[in-house]
């Protein structure tokens, strides 16, 4: 039987050209890859090629959001953002998510710290970082341990955990690293200023991690995990433009080596930027984004808005308003309704290219049949 007309027409295009078309399908909409696989056998063959997935990841660079780790007061829930991926465990009672990066999630519960890989379904218990330390606040994060990794498909036990501890009584803030390879925490590196740390996700810029403190402290903690050094960064002087102290989140800026600060006041999101590789570089106010949108049910006077998370590498801020979770893309200024969950207090995105591997797994049997 002759091939359908559209199959014959598409087969006339060189494979290299069709590969360039398919690689441009957006990673945050994996269903488009599935639909493309049903168009014709040449497209199906390209999508199932083992080299296509690597090329696709290298082309897009930033893994899509596969799910949100939504924090409630006594639990954490993994909420899938695609029907193609859901980990075996999605509910964690009496557990907080501290951070998620490079394919791993750092969890904290009465049992202690643990790193969880949702794709592999594996977890690793982390010993306490508090031995030999005095503190009245702390936080921690996780990241890939390979300095040469492109972080396109990170998984497994090759990670490090960084903990930062604040001691306002002694006037000291300290940091240390843990590696599963050694099974040990490094010695404490300290700076002679005590702060009260927020238990919120850190931001990775170059080889430094940045942690926020409570608004009354007015400082940002910087931990260089390669040099094992701690220093403090002052945020912008909000009093110059805002009537009250402001909570804020940090993000990597689009420009390498720059830190972005986002502060929400009523119906406006204010953005500031700083070159962190230059110690004396000032904060520069970038712009202000209005977030009120009647189409999304956002009106002045609604409950909120207040920031509950951000997408590192995605230039996205998550915020609550009117008992619903919204996201705002800082590049396009587009506001999107995400969830209707009035009880959540944090939203931490889990990013992964694993959905492309699942797409190939779904399509592969059709390649054999056809």
From TrEMBL:
InterPro entries: F-box-like_dom_sf (IPR036047), F-box_dom (IPR001810). Residues 10-54 form the F-box domain. SUPFAM superfamilies: F-box domain (SSF81383). Pfam families: F-box. It comes from the Eukaryota. PANTHER family: OS07G0120400 PROTEIN, OS07G0122900 PROTEIN. This is F-box domain-containing protein.
